[in-house]
Amino acid sequence: MARYVVIPERSCVWADARSSLHPIHVETPGFEGQIEADVVDGEVRLGVPTHIELEVVRLESHSGLIDTDLQRRLEARKYRHIKGDLREATPIGDARLRLTGDLTLHGVSRPLTVEVTARVSADGLVEVEGEKVIDMREFGLTPPKFLMFKVEPTVKVRARLIARRQT
Fold it and tell me: pTM score, two decimals?
């Protein structure tokens, strides 16, 4: 397996939550880490160890009230990173993989399975993209409430990683 280094400025996470007032959208570039991968006949095969992380302070919704509460709830000073560690990648067809690993958020690690698309771009970069709905309560987080404004506990998270082969 070859090692690919994640390109932070091209790798992004999006998170969408629902509230009683309006939708909440977070969009943040800046993933860091490495991906173990081989490209065989144009197909990407991921391997271990693959580790990615994102600094909590990077998460932004562009709403001061929501961003302040998000940083406080996630205890950004104490738990500085959201981390993902891959344990297994199983091909399921048509450039799709089922990834099994651990997600660490707010100091709590939980096993997670997600289906992703993995491909190689024309310029030789590995691109991995997928989405998963998570329940923030599973990570010890209480959904925010502001007066009559309530946030649902489930959040749809989508991530795109773009990585360059390490030389």
Answer: 0.91
